[in-house]
Amino acid sequence: MTKIFVVSKRQLRHWLLIGLMALGTLGAAWYWGYSEAKTTSGSMAPQGEARTIHLVTGEFKSTDANGKTIEAYRWDPGTIHVKQGEPINLSIFGVNGTNHPFIIDGLNVKGEVKKGKETVVSFRADKPGTYRIVCLSHPDIAHNGPMVGYIIVDA
């Protein structure tokens, strides 16, 4: 005995729509999985190439109980991790504040970030430890700081 299925145009469109949605979902899942894997495995630059890490200058502003404006500047992100010996390009974009001359303690790196401009400094940390990025204009509370960030070098 032979069974015959009759499919109406409405049912065909319904199943086609479900199939396209399933295909789209699988495609999106593959894409996100692929890009996540690429990001994870690509977090270290290939041997010899410098990895670029992006930072921005930020500002917090408020008023105290007397109506006086108070503000503080910061590096964002405030902490970055690198591997010992890894070549790094630190790209810092000035968003808030006119200028931020800075040093990186212990790495013999200095530079200046200006509002609306990108500053790139390069370094390779040969010793594990924590190194401070210090803005020389905002080193403490008296100068709208401390504007200090941290580079953590892992062995």
Helix content: 10-25%
Name the poorly predicted regions: 35-43
Structural class: alpha+beta
Number of helices: 1
**Cα distance spanning the termini:** 73 Å
What summary fits the major beta sheet?
5 strands, mixed
- SS elements, strand count: 9
Rg over C-alpha atoms, rounded to the nearest angstrom: 26 Å
Looking at how many chains there are and whether they match, the oligomeric state comes to single chain
Q: What is the global morphology?
A: elongated
Strand content: 35-45%
Q: Give the SSE order as H and E letters.
A: HEEEEEEEEE
Average pLDDT, rounded to a whole number, is: 84
- Strand order in the sheet with the most strands: 3-9-8-5-6
Give a structural overview.
With 155 residues, the protein is of the alpha+beta class. The chain is 21% helix and 43% strand. The chain contains one helix and nine strands, in the order αβββββββββ. The strands form two sheets. The protein has a five-stranded mixed beta sheet, with no helix packed on it. Strands 2-1-4-7 form a four-stranded mixed beta sheet, with no helix packed on it. β5 (99-104) and β6 form a beta hairpin. The longest helix is centred in the first third of the chain and has 33 residues, at 9-41.
Task: Jot down its keywords.
single chain; 155 residues; alpha+beta; five-stranded mixed β-sheet; four-stranded mixed β-sheet; elongated
Please give a quick description of this structure.
The chain is α+β, with helices and mostly antiparallel strands. Helix content is 21%, strand content 43%.
Question: What is the fold's blueprint, element by element?
Answer:
Elements: H1 9-41, E1 51-63, E2 69-76, E3 79-83, E4 87-93, E5 99-104, E6 109-114, E7 118-124, E8 129-135, E9 148-154
Parallel strand pairs: 1-4, 3-9
Antiparallel strand pairs: 1-2, 4-7, 5-6, 5-8, 8-9
